[in-house]
Amino acid sequence: MSKNLVIVESPAKAKTIQKYLGKDFEVKSSFGHIRDLPKKGMGIDLSTFSPDYEVSADKKKLVTELKAAVKKAEMVWLASDEDREGEAIAWHLAEELKLKPENRKRIVFHEITKNAILKSIENPRDIDQNLVNAQQARRVLDRIVGFEMSPVLWKKVKPGLSAGRVQSVAVRLIVEREKEIREFVPKASFKLDGIFLNKTKQEISAKLKKDFDKEEEAEKFLEQAKTTEFKVLNVETKPGTRSASAPFTTSTLQQEASSRLGYNVTNTMRLAQRLYEEGYITYMRTDSVNLSQEAIEGAKKQIVSEYGAEYSAPRNYTTKSASAQEAHEAIRPTDFAVKTVGDAQLNRLYQLIYRRTLASQMANAKIEKTVIEIGNTKLPQHFEAQGEVIIFDGFLRAYGIVKAEEDDEENNEKLLPKVTVGETLDYKKITATEKFTRPSARYTEAGLVKKLEELGIGRPSTYAPTIQTIQNREYVDKREIEPQTREVVKISLANDTIKKEVLDEKFGGDKNKFVPTDTGEVVSNFLTDNFKEILDYGFTARVEESFDEIANGDQKWKEMMTDFYSKFHPRIEDVEENADRATGDRLLGVDPKTGKNVHARIGRFGAMIQIGETDDEEKPVFASLMAGQNIATITFEEALELFKLPFDLNEVDGQPVSVGVGRFGPYVKWGETFISIPKGEDPLSVDQKRAEEIINEKKIADAPIATYKGEPVTKGSGRFGPFIKYKDIFVNVPKRYDFENLSQSDINELIDAKLEKEANRYIQQWEKEKISIENGRWGPFIKFGKAMFKIPRKADDTKYEGEELKEISLDEVKKWITDQDPKAFAEKKKPAAKKATTAKKTTTTKKATTTKKPAAKK
Predict the structure, then answer these.
(1) CA–CA gap between residue 675 and residue 855 (Å, rounded)
(2) Is 217 buried (19+), middle (13-18) or exposed (0-12) by CB count in 10 A?
(3) What pLDDT is stored for residue 688 in this prediction?
(4) Of 282, 353, 291, nearest to 316 (Cα)?
(5) Which candidate in 283, 350, 463, 475 is catalytic?
(6) Which residues, in sequence order, are bridge partners of residue 212?
(7) Most buried residue, 37, 248, 725, 759, by CB count within 10 Å?
């Protein structure tokens, strides 16, 4: 029996720590928080701001097991993470497991290494209540904001919406950037580039130092250049240096993993968590760029060994952010001798962290920058060529250079040939190209993290969940923006001849950047108009500062909550009572056929175009917007075009054919089959011939690729990747199979495995009641509808065997479900009382649903 019980958050962390501790220690995982505010109801006493925490249903069994383990141990070591969230987990464990101060110790470490674990056990402390209170303040304040603001949105915008303190501010940033892009008026100018040749015919690329506003000015300059003798007017060479960036914080890791590896924020944090739990890196949620002396020494030893003493330049960095909350180190390797990690995905992130940390301890790169001025005193402007040579690579040896997203490709500096002042150069070609100014770029995930950090909004632990939440709520998405086309003028001078061309240039297209949805924009505008302070960037940052003060013991958390709520709640009441409904309504014009108004607005089912008014005797008609359209920018003409959909075409193979647009974009409907129209293709341009082509493509795609026991087998690609279909069974095809060239034996193997799995899935099933006992990855469980419930232990505290579960009655299973969710079988109240008052509204919204179509599938 172990005298010591160590409790950590994750099984992976437990497994790693268990390796370093002897037989006197047992390490168990709490699987994160064991209790929280209830999922239903606010769970907070608003007179005292006391939270009503409860153990979640899926953690009750675990808590029972931990209580049993606590009884057997002499000392319990609470080893959750070294931040506010980790401190709160330790406190909740101590409270729920009823740990006495004399029988518990709190230990923290920022890396999972033997040395760090043993050192933490030698230096235990008690739970830091200030850190716990800072976490409680965040949790309670965010629950109150969400719980009180969301019903206002249901009433004033549409049902089912939700608001959050940090998330709403993040959406506001994206909405404001989109408005900025829409309102941006591009300004044209002419940029001149020249290619010059020296005596040995080596090329020198140079740019004119000033742009011309007008085409005539650019053309006049080229006319002058045609008869001008170009000379080297000046050559300036000056030394320079480049220094390494600081080691990674959570934010800079997320940004660099995005630009170098293409990882999104959530994926980066998931991989970093694994690297930490497996002992490869220090704690991955940190604002600090500080390195321990031990780490600096370790990096120095590795640099000297691998690159030489001249590459070593030990230094420490100071954190610029005044609000850095934890006394952590930067994210760094725990052992510089470990250069690679076995798992390929983990290794890519580990290499990034490893090289960045090494580079931060390496000498500056030495460069020599050369600037050549080319021109003639007769010309109003001169050309300039820039180049640089790396004299000593320093930290670049380990980390290299990464091009920032905003860097202009034309500004790449290059090596220049040797020239002397006064030397005559021949021009090979001089080009004046019309260029348009560009608006600020839409936010990438990394760019949004950077902006939130700059504004002091959120903390390392909040960036990833915030970004995930605003996408899950469908306030923003990353849909592709199709580029537009415009004409640009290009004037070239070569061989004493001036040539003018008008070219097409694509602009405004975007991929993988955040764009607000119609709902996101309407919600953000409503909240910004009615809750200015909550949505104010400065206010949100000040709230974070208050959390910092609570963590430092300089402010009482309930006093902060009282002050906040005394201003917040009256505003909620005022908005709920007096604010107008928000639909984003835009009056586009008058329908020439009916003489009725045409509106673009948010309805119960999302963005739509409406002809007529809701209170007209004749009900309005509705049309869904197509992908890429939104209510803020759609034109009157585009809106009327939507009412031409759906339209019917001639039958194909005896089946009716129509073209329409639904929630998932434009489609051809053939019989009961919906077929997506290819991306970028206008559904209104689909005629009989094109529809038949799309249907034939679908036929080919759906043609059987083989048979299984005499039945056809087809293949396709869906939400979860490639699959084959046999009867009504979909079988995912793993990557180890060549999906394009599946053999009959591959197909037999895949279907056999799926049928066997399905046969073993159900222990008992009651289809009418939607209840089943199923075999799962971690053992048998109960499924009721979409909800999953645990199977309790028997009276003698042993588990039920599979054969025993086959004999369990439906009534007994229902009792098990009710024990875990008392309201599981409660009858839903019928909204009879509201029926009369909402009849008119219901009629309206039903018409809106007629334009909605099922998902078009290929």
Answers:
(1) 9
(2) middle
(3) 94
(4) 291
(5) 283
(6) 190
(7) 248
Helix (H/G/I), strand (E/B), else coil: 461: coil
- Is position 667 annotated as part of the catalytic site? no
- Which residues lie closer than 8 Å to 587 by C-beta, 6 or more apart? 597, 598, 599
Distances, alpha carbon 28 to alpha carbons 25, 57, 63, 197, in Å: 10, 19, 11, 73
Region for residue 558 given its phi and psi (left: phi exceeds 0; alpha: psi -120 to 50; beta: otherwise):
alpha
Rounded to whole angstroms, what are the CA distances from 61 to 9, 600, 792?
A: 16, 52, 9
pLDDT of residue 835: 38
- Cα separation of 206 and 584, whole Å? 50
CA atoms in the 13 A half-sphere facing the CB of 93 = 33
Residue 128: predicted pLDDT = 93
**Amino acid residing at 568:** F
* Residue 439 CA, distance from chain mean position: 23
Give the distance from CA 844 to its chain's centroid. Answer: 36
Amino acid at 374: I
Query: Which tokens hold the place of 370?
Result: 């050369």
Q: What is the pTM of this model?
A: 0.76
Q: What is the DSSP secondary-structure string of 52-116?
A: --EE-GGGHHHHHHHHHHHHH-SEEEE---SSHHHHHHHHHHHHHTT--GGGEEE---SB-SHHH
Query: Which tokens belong to 537?
Result: 């960037």
Number of H helices and E strands in the chain, helices first, is 23, 34
Close Cβ partners of 443 (under 8 Å, ≥ 6 residues apart): 173, 174, 177, 451, 513, 514
SS3 442: coil
Helices (H), 653-808: 688-702, 744-759, 802-805
Phi/psi of residue 488, nearest 5 degrees: -130, 150
Q: What is the pLDDT of residue 666?
A: 87
C-alpha span between 337 and 800 (Å, rounded)? 49
Q: What contacts 605, CB < 8 A, 6 or more positions away? A: 845, 848, 849, 852
DSSP state of 342: S
pLDDT mean for each 10 residues of the chain (858 residues): 83 85 88 88 90 88 90 91 90 92 90 88 92 93 92 89 90 95 95 93 94 94 93 94 92 92 91 91 89 92 95 86 59 93 91 96 94 93 93 91 49 73 94 96 92 85 89 90 92 93 93 92 93 86 90 92 92 92 90 91 84 86 83 90 90 92 84 86 90 90 87 83 88 89 92 85 89 85 90 85 89 92 75 40 37 41
Q: Which residues make beta-bridge pairs with 601?
A: 608
Distance of alpha carbon 107 from alpha carbon 99, whole angstroms: 15
* 19 membership: H or E segment, kind and range: helix 11-20
Closest CA to 405 of 362, 438, 360, 361: 438
What Å distances lie between residue 273 and 278, 466, 713, CA to CA? 9, 17, 41
Unique residue bearing structure tokens 């230094």:
315
The pLDDT value recorded for residue 190 is 97
- Give me the count of residues in the chain: 858
CA distance 498 to 192: 14
- What's the rounded Cα separation, in Å, for the pair 486 and 41? 54
Supply 852's token pair.
Answer: 């909605």
Contact at 8 Å (CB) between 318 and 279? no
The pLDDT value given to residue 208: 96
Closest CA to 449 of 635, 631, 263: 263
Token pair 């934890």 is at which residue? Answer: 326
264 DSSP 8-state letter: -
> Would you tell me the crossing angle of helices 129-156 and 537-551 to the nearest 10 degrees?
150
Q: How many CB atoms lie within 10 A of CB 165?
A: 23
* Confidence at residue 414, expressed as pLDDT on a 0 to 100 scale: 67
The DSSP code sequence of 513-542 is --EE-HHHHHHHHHHHHH-TTTT-HHHHHH
Q: What is the token pair recorded at 587?
A: 């009056």
813 touches 773 (CB < 8 A): yes
